[in-house]
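Narrative of accomplishments. A recurring question from our advisory board has been how the design workflow behaves on a single, concrete structure rather than in aggregate. To address it, we present the structure tokens for one chain from the evaluation set, followed by the sequence designed for it. No filtering or post-editing was applied between the two.
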């Protein structure tokens, strides 16, 4: 009886030749598996650069700890902001498939040049070795320029790749179909599980190669992974579902016109709006009661009566949905600031601690980030297979709990991770004082690096809730034509968070180092006070969560979706 349903066509989707697609032949988990594979390889490549970047900047480019952290945060911030540009190009001109393919090629170019820059010798190395005072060698200008040029090519490539791949993967499921709608909700969980697997491999393999073998090989391996990602993506070309909305008006023009018309009609009074709604035969709608200013776009300005036309109610509601995301976006920025610490100061803490497992073998400090991936993977499995079914039984919601509830719980765990990080840092500093190592920055503090594991685990568990929740929220709550933009808005939380973290570090560096005092981020971490910084982030997280809770309670889900 159900066999014919499996062969029905999917509305709004076509195959690679532009023909209507059969549900059983295109899309679904088969196509999504190719796309998840692409993301696994791409995340392996990206974190192969990002995870240990702070050590490359301090050890190879001779930057101070604070300067290196700022550079990492700025680069990470730019990389997470550029998806806004990539999503605009994809949704307006290129389409997601072509944007992914072109971005992957640019990615390979950037990683290749990065490998070359790490292979080039320092021009002043031999001269430094001949001196007796062993002044640290500085890299040549060409080396530095090539390195940062390559690094930002990777950032631009990620800007096109990141928002489109996930949106393209979710597009393989029909949200209007009961079974595929459930599969789409699981897709976001398994998507992040795949990322966790990729980053775990990166943190355990690539960071070891970079610390113990060579940086050129450590950058070359991610380049090979990205070549593999492009091949896997192209392999699934004939199985994908593609959007058939190419003849629909540019969504940016459509949304922008709403704001323009609303501003032009700023003098219009509410009675005129009500009259226009009555003429259009509109019934009161719960979401349309928000941001009533935009309802003025329903009326044609007097100066444009002859050739102008009003916006439709659906266009106004699309604009309202984007405006409604702003409070959630802003209040999640504190989480984005905390998120950026695991690849910077957490790593530098680990470098100073006892990293030996057996005599002659030391754990790379950056490899402890693998515990983030490990806890993400385990948390998602437990969440998807145990927590959701139980919660679904009590709430009746397909996803068990609402997206905003999931995000909020992760924010609490994120703040708790900073509490633990501060307490561990206090213990590290006390240990350095007890053993008389405060003035010996290169000495190994007799405190096991495994003390850092709890804070990494909590970061991972919080990511499994907040990051996955944000992905689904910003995909689901935007108009269908702006899905890539929705996901780029989610990514921009971490981009702006990283940049704000850089500004915060810079400001604290100046304030804390005045009057001859030791900076909180002193190059000698035994004299620094990272614990003060972590406590500051706890306070910032508390403020962010309080504001988030207020807006989350009043948020009205679009499309009647409360999942």
């Amino acid at each position: 009886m159900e066999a014919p349903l499996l062969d029905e066509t999917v509305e709004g989707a076509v195959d690679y030749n532009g023909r209507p697609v059969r549900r059983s032949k295109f899309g679904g988990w088969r196509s999504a598996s190719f796309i998840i594979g692409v993301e696994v390889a791409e995340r392996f490549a990206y974190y192969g650069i990002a995870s240990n970047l702070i050590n490359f900047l301090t050890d190879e480019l001779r930057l101070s700890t604070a300067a290196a952290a700022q550079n990492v945060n700025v680069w990470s911030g730019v990389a997470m902001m550029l998806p806004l540009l990539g999503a605009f190009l994809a949704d307006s001109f290129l389409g997601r498939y072509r944007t992914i393919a072109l971005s992957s090629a640019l990615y390979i170019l950037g990683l290749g040049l990065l490998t070359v820059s790490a292979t080039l010798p320092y021009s002043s190395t031999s001269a430094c070795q001949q001196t007796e005072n062993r002044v640290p060698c500085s890299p040549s200008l060409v080396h530095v320029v090539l390195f940062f040029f390559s690094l930002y090519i990777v950032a631009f490539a990620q800007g096109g790749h990141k928002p489109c791949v996930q949106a393209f993967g979710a597009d393989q499921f029909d949200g209007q179909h009961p079974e595929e709608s459930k599969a789409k909700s699981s897709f976001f969980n398994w998507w992040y599980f795949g990322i966790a697997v990729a980053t775990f491999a990166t943190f355990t393999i690539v960071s070891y190669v970079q610390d113990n073998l060579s940086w050129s090989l450590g950058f070359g391996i991610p380049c090979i992974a990205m070549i593999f990602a492009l091949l896997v993506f192209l392999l699934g070309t004939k199985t994908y579902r593609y959007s058939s909305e190419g003849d629909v008006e540019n969504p940016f023009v459509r949304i922008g016109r709403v704001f323009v018309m609303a501003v032009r009609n700023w003098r219009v009074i509410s009675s005129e709006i009500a009259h226009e709604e009555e003429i259009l035969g509109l019934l009161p709608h719960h979401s349309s009661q928000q941001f009533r200013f935009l309802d003025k776009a329903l009326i044609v300005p007097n100066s444009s009566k002859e050739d102008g036309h009003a916006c439709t109610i659906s266009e106004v509601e699309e604009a309202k949905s984007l405006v409604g995301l702003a409070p959630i976006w802003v209040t999640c920025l504190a989480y984005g600031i905390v998120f950026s610490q695991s690849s910077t100061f957490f790593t530098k803490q680990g470098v100073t601690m006892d990293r030996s497992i057996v005599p002659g073998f030391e754990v790379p400090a950056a490899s402890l980030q693998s515990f983030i991936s490990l806890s993400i993977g385990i948390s998602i499995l437990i969440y998807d297979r145990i927590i959701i079914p139980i919660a679904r039984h009590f709430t009746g919601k397909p996803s068990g709990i609402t997206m905003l509830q999931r995000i909020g719980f992760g924010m609490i765990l994120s703040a708790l991770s900073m509490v633990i990080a501060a307490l561990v840092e206090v213990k590290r500093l006390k240990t350095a004082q007890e053993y008389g190592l405060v003035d010996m920055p290169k000495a190994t503090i007799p405190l096991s690096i495994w003390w850092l594991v709890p804070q990494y685990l909590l970061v991972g568990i919080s990511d499994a809730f907040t990051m996955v929740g944000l992905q689904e929220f910003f995909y689901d709550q935007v108009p269908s034509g702006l899905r890539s933009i929705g996901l780029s808005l989610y990514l921009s939380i971490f981009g702006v968070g990283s940049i704000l973290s850089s500004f915060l570090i810079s400001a604290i560096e100046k304030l804390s180092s005045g009057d001859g005092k030791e900076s909180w981020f002193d190059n000698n971490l035994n004299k620094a006070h990272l614990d003060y910084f972590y406590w500051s982030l706890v306070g910032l997280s508390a403020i962010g969560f309080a504001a988030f809770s207020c807006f989350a309670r009043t948020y009205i889900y679009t499309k009647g979706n409360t999942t």
